[in-house]
Amino acid sequence: MRDRLKSVSGKKTLITGAASGIGRATAIAAARAGAEVVLTDIDAEGLADTVEAIGREGGKVLVSRALDISDYEAVRAFAQEVHDRHGSLDVVMNVAGVSAWGTVENLEHRHWRRLIDVNLMGPIHVIETFVPPMVRAGRGGALVNVSSAAGLLAFPWHAPYSASKFGLRGVSEVLRFDLERHGITVHLVVPGAVNTGLVQTVEIAGVDREDPRIQRYTKLFQKHAASPERVAQQILRGIERNRFLVHTSFEVRFGYWWARKFAWPYEFVMRRANDKFNSFLG
Ligand code: NAI
Predict the structure, then answer these.
(1) Could you read off the pLDDT of 27-86 as tens digits, one per residue?
(2) CA angle at 266 for the pair 265 and 267, rounded to the nearest 5°
(3) Tell me, what's the pLDDT at 211?
């Protein structure tokens, strides 16, 4: 078995969601660590800002392209372009994602569709177009998938988000063993609260975001949230130390352990949390 990849330094590294939040911070941190980055995001303007920030520090951006990861043909064409110009990659990081919350009676079909398309099919499109050339190249590498605490635990109102993030966790757990024989390590990042644009853009079906109670909870969330820069460091360390589960906060590490050991108290807390959330609907 070949030596596993221990650092992104000098490695061709794809990062999706690079225009904002965790993806942007990870792109900057990876470039600082010596990676040659390939960046993408649906937000062309934000992506250009990230490319400029990396350029200012003397980092190397091989390619950057604005595209929608839920569009398979767009991802395939991008992969073709990257492979034609630079050959197969060493590290692939699926960071881009969106969020929407709500109870089943408030959620619309478009919410379910979008979360599965972007958060689950998006990473699948990236995996199916970028990982096989890595396998064929035989140099090993790393695959990082950003799931969520909601990919481990059943938070209220998270059904579509958890459908996508548990799905990505399933893909990752299988590929972890499948890709081992090719020297490709797999890392599942499970952040708790992270202070990024997502906090403001999350759509809550059936709830007025301007409601002072919701604003209060948003502020509380932000106060306890990790910075995207810290999460970026944890992702790079997760690759270095070959961690499958990359935790970014003690609460999630503890919560997941606790839920597995103590089923009844976990169920009690989740019932109470659901009651609390439902009080916002009236
Ligand atoms: P963010 O909103 O700052 O960044 C997400 C990026 O994904 C944005 O730049 C956005 O333009 C891009 N994106 C959205 N849809 C896209 C599409 N169809 N195609 C290509 N790019 C698209 O949010 P954040 O927090 O940095 O999110 C990164 C990842 O972390 C997501 O997968 C999210 O689910 C996950 N996460 C975030 C948490 C948080 O508290 N912020 C907690 C747990 C997980």
Answers:
(1) 999 999 999 999 999 999 999 999 999 999 999 999 999 999 999 999 999 999 999 999
(2) 90
(3) 81
Give the CA-trace dihedral at 221, 226, 232, 236, to 10 degrees: -120
Contact between 169 and 151 under an 8 Å Cβ cutoff? The reply is: yes
Average pLDDT, integer, range 193-206: 84
Q: How many CB atoms lie within 10 A of CB 253?
A: 16
Per-residue pLDDT tens for 201-212?
788 888 877 788
115 close to ligand 1 (CB < 6 Angstrom)? no
CA distances from 178 to 75, 127, 143, 172 (A): 23, 13, 12, 10
Residues 6+ apart with CB under 8 A from 180: none
What is the spatial distance between Cα 217 and Cα 167, in angstroms, rounded to a whole number? 27
| Secondary structure of residue 10 in the 3-state scheme | coil
Report the nearest-CA residue for atom 44 of ligand 1: 148
If you count them, how many residues does the chain have? 282
d(CA 29, CA 69): 22
Beta bridge partners of 13: 37, 91
Instruction: For ligand 1, say whether the CB of 168 is within 6 Å of any of its atoms.
Output: no
CA dist., res. 237 & res. 29, Å (int): 11
Residue 1 confidence (pLDDT) above 70? no
Q: How many CB atoms lie within 10 A of CB 180?
A: 14
Model-wide pTM > 0.90: yes
Burial 122-142 (b: 16+ CB within 10 A, else e): bbbbbbebbbeebbeeebbbb
What is the CA(65)–ligand 1 centre distance, in A? 17
Question: Which of 81, 94, 88 is CA-nearest to residue 175?
Answer: 94
